Amino acid sequence: LAKTTQPISMDSYEGQEVNITCSHNNIATNDYITWYQQFPSQGPRFIIQGYKTKVKNEVASLFIPADRKSSTLSLPRVSLSDTAVYYCLVGDGIGGYQKVTFGTGTKLQVIP
Amino acid sequence: KAGVTQTPRYLIKTRGQQVTLSCSPISGHRSVSWYQQTPGQGLQFLFEYFSETQRNKGNFPGRFSGRQFSNSRSEMNVSTLELGDSALYLCASSVASGSFNEQFFGPGTRLTVL
Prior knowledge:
- The complex is a heterodimer of chains A (112) and B (114).
- Chain A is mainly beta and 112 residues long.
- Helix content of chain A is 0%, strand content 45%.
- In chain A, a hairpin with a 5-residue loop joins strand 6 (61-64) and strand 7.
- The radius of gyration of chain A is 13 Å and the shape is globular.
- The termini of chain A are far apart.
- In chain B, the strands form two sheets. In chain B, strands 2, 4, 5, 6, 9, 10 and 11 form a seven-stranded mixed beta sheet that branches. In chain B, strands 1-3-8-7 form a four-stranded antiparallel beta sheet, with no helix packed on it.
- Chain B is 0% helix and 53% strand.
- The radius of gyration of chain B is 13 Å and the shape is globular.
- Chain B has strands at residues 5-7, 10-13, 19-24, 31-38, 42-50, 53-57, 64-68, 74-78, 87-94, 104-105, 109-113.
- In chain B, strand 7 and strand 8 (74-78) form a beta hairpin.
- By secondary structure, chain B is mainly beta.
- Chain B starts with a strand and ends with a strand.
- At the A-B interface, strand 4 of A face strand 5, strand 9 and strand 10 of B.
């Protein structure tokens, strides 16, 4: 199974850029990297997905180096509403994400 | 487009009882996955159904079972409840089965076992 490692928690001030790095040393060739956001008492919400290099959408950017053994979620100019838990997920190619444990994620606290 | 709905939102049961949770996926989505979320273990995959067939299964005991109906709605059943089954049970739907498909999660059912 593709295992991911993320920092347990991070603090950031409003307006700053936040970078959350995820380590996935045994990522397989067919695996994609996906990030989800979860607020208390809600289900996770898809943020961004990528395979290599850089992906950007209206919410975040995802940077993936050439070896794909890590990835970095970048949130530009965070606000208080970005306080949430962020999960990095890697598909294992067989059975997909469904075979992967989300883990405990990174709890981001945005400070006013 | 309506999102994923789960019923009930909250449930209190006692040890030894059984419980059935329901999930209605987004219209047009044929894959439904179930997850258990606890503070200590995080989000753990239970199983996935696609076109009424179980496609994938996580490492949970046989007390946890599920099914999917022809309209893609899914139910999850837990028999002989244990205290450790207290958790948030999340359902997620996607268009198709597989790792590259974005999953849309419901709000979850909070199960408390006393």
